[in-house]
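Hypothesis: this fold can be encoded by more than one sequence.
Test: take the structure tokens below, design a sequence, compare later.
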């Protein structure tokens, strides 16, 4: 994947930005192939990090294929919502941000925060 310690130092503030500004229970940074780069969840949110990243990757691959087929464009984000929770998958260039939350009334704020962080993550890897 080609992420070194310098990249991690640049990525970390973006993850902190999301967790500080969005009301989420779990967050992961994954590769497009579904490899876990970073994962964190609140203790009461019982989910396995590998499973969380794998589910995110599966949704991502399905969504990317669908958007490419229908619109011949790259996928920007996926939002899957239930009555008591949601998952958001946001394209961040070489990386993908996956977040899950249970407070539906904060969903749109979380989307906005993730879009900002994704733009910043894309800038980190520009030109590589």
């Amino acid at each position: 994947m080609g992420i070194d310690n310098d990249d991690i130092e640049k990525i970390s503030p973006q993850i902190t930005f999301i967790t500080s500004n969005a009301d989420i229970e779990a967050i992961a940074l994954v590769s497009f192939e579904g490899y876990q780069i970073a994962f964190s969840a609140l203790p009461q949110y019982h989910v396995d990090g590998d499973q969380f990243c794998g589910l995110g990757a599966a949704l991502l691959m399905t969504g990317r294929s669908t958007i490419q087929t229908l619109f011949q464009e790259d996928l920007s984000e996926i939002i899957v919502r239930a009555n008591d929770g949601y998952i958001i998958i946001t394209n961040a260039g070489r990386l993908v941000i996956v977040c899950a939350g249970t407070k539906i009334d904060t969903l749109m704020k979380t989307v906005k925060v993730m879009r900002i962080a994704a733009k910043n993550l894309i800038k980190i890897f520009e030109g590589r």
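The mean pLDDT is 92. The domain at 5-124 is CATH 3.30.450.30 (Beta-Lactamase).
Hypothesis status: open.
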